[in-house]
Design goal:
The protein is α/β, with parallel strands linked by helices. It has two domains: 178 residues, Flavodoxin domain (Rossmann fold), CATH 3.40.50.360; 52 residues, Alpha-Beta Plaits. The chain contains eight helices and eleven strands. β6, α4 and β7 form a beta-alpha-beta unit. It binds flavin mononucleotide.
């Protein structure tokens, strides 16, 4: 049978750019192999997650999310379940993790895609630099990763030529494993759920980039130092501030980052799965 794919999409939530980079790399690789263009859909912005995105048969959709606490970010997973409508199109969920552990995030995203009406062909857990520190997952993804993506996409392309595509599905009663509980350097629990970014007023030039990049719309438009909304610790405002004016000073948060840096700098593996 001929490859049934007519359109290819890279759909991602990516506050600090790791998921975006991986989506583009894998999406372009697949598009090139199949002689198609890649269409990108960025769901990082809150408004884009509040709109409905419908796909149709013949679409191949790479759905890409970061791993937070070994799961899909809990404030985002509900949006993804509602804003994506598969209608029998094919999905490949990919979770991007920062060199510590992907936990159960891939199955969670796979179940979201299944529930949204996609036929889920394959999935992956892919390593990127950790949003918390450049020392964790440093310079990932790199050329060795890109080679692995290429062979994964080639395997998928071969499978797509088969006549009967009956993917193995997750059982209906699937429940994701519990969230990872972050630890401090002394291996006791790190509690930073309520931590919010601070602003060094001597560096801030009021450009408003932090306000615009916050995926939760949590920064005040009137006062960029004020964060009245929920902070998911994504680090978008920290990493995208051109003046380096944003920072976290929460002790538990900083101790957790140090713990991950102390224990998880050894090169972690990408994991690929085919469900057909
Ligand atoms: C709040 C938060 C929690 C995270 N939890 C994990 C985790 O449990 N395991 C892991 O390996 N990486 C974890 N990471 C790292 C991210 O998965 C990684 O940095 C990813 O590339 C972020 O995607 P982005 O660059 O598209 O924003 C976490 C990052 C953040 C911001």
């Amino acid at each position: 049978m001929k490859n049934p794919i007519e359109r290819i999409f890279a759909v991602y939530f990516s506050p600090t750019g790791g998921c975006k980079k991986i989506s583009q790399k894998i999406g372009f690789t697949a598009a090139e192999m199949m002689g198609l263009d890649l269409e990108e859909m960025d769901l990082t912005n809150l408004a884009s997650r509040k709109s409905l995105h419908e796909f149709s048969k013949g679409d191949l959709v790479f759905v890409v999310s970061p791993v937070y606490a070994s799961r899909i970010p809990n404030k985002i997973v509900g949006d993804l379940a509602v804003c994506l409508k598969g209608q029998g199109s094919y999905a490949v969920p990919l979770v991007v993790y920062g060199n510590r552990s992907p936990g159960d995030a891939l199955n969670e995203l796979r179940s979201v895609c299944q529930g949204a009406g996609f036929s889920v062909l394959a999935g992956g857990c892919l390593v990127a630099r950790h949003a918390f520190s450049d020392d964790i997952g440093r310079a990932r993804p790199d050329t060795a990763d890109f080679e692995e993506y290429r062979s994964f996409v080639a395997d998928l392309g071969e499978k797509l030529k088969e006549d009967d595509l009956e993917p193995i599905t997750l059982p209906d009663d699937y429940e994701p494993e519990p969230y990872y509980k972050p630890l401090k350097e002394d291996m006791t629990p790190a509690k930073f759920l309520k931590a919010k970014p601070k602003t060094d007023e001597s560096k801030c030039d009021q450009c408003g980039i932090c306000y615009r990049v916050c995926p939760m719309d949590s920064i005040s438009r009137e006062n960029y130092s004020d964060v009245p909304g929920i902070c998911i610790k994504c680090q978008a405002c920290i990493r995208k501030c051109p003046q380096g004016a944003k920072y976290f000073d929460d002790e538990d948060f900083l101790s957790h980052v140090a713990m991950v840096r102390n224990n998880f700098t050894r090169r972690a593996d990408n994991i690929f799965q085919l469900y057909i």
